[in-house]
Design the sequence.
């Protein structure tokens, strides 16, 4: 049973709208991540956080922003959605080591911008 | 450049048959290699994780092998079931960063027919 939750599961929204994708985990993990995945392609890291008030950009440039005010919550925001933002967004979390243990993914949010 | 290459890109097998998926990587330094199963529209779920010293690990009908010398891994699925239809992703972690960087393959799309 997944202990990391993403909402909404699906979102269709018009160009120019502001959206926030929610991600919450109940495992007490310090590290959290956002990945972007297009069909048939690999996951690309767009944001990560080591802990509260810590956020960094990942490898793939993204116009989205993130915040980490609480350990369990790592929302992603797009100020002005565009069709190029259409993709699947996956949230993940891991414990302190990150490399060997407890790397868990949420079920994802499928975003479509029309 | 650190990379993870998977083959085949897609595979169709009949229910009850066995199959083997391949993963070659160039990630260095090496920490561990994971295989994930990703159902359509869902987040990846971990199947196995192997460190440098491990050369085989099983999880039910899934058996992963690792040859750290040749930088190759395989995932063998025994007596396939319809529910095995999914994308199988090979993920390699390096040891060189505090982030515990993950490198993702594009996945092998497995379809099991009745």
Sequence:
């Amino acid at each position: 049973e997944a202990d990391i939750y993403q909402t909404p599961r699906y979102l269709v929204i018009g160009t120019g709208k502001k959206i926030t994708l929610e991600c919450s985990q109940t495992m007490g993990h310090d590290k959290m991540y956002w990945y972007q995945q297009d069909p048939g392609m690999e996951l690309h890291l767009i944001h990560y956080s080591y802990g509260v008030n810590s956020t960094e950009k990942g490898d793939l440039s993204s116009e989205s922003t993130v915040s980490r005010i609480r350990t369990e919550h790592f929302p992603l925001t797009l100020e002005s959605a565009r069709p190029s933002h259409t993709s699947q967004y996956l949230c993940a979390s891991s414990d302190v080591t990150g490399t060997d243990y407890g790397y868990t993914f949420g079920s994802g949010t499928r975003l479509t911008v029309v | 450049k650190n990379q993870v290459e998977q083959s085949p890109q897609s595979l169709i097998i009949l229910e009850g048959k066995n199959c083997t998926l391949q993963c070659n990587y160039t990630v260095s330094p090496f920490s561990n290699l994971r295989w994930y199963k990703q159902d359509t529209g869902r987040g990846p779920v971990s199947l196995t994780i192997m460190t440098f010293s491990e050369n085989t690990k099983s999880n039910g009908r899934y058996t992963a092998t690792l040859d750290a010398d040749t930088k190759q891994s395989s995932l063998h699925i025994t007596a396939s079931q319809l529910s095995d239809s999914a994308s199988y992703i090979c993920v390699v972690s390096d040891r060189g960063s505090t982030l515990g960087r993950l490198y993702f393959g594009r996945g092998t799309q497995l379809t099991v027919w009745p």
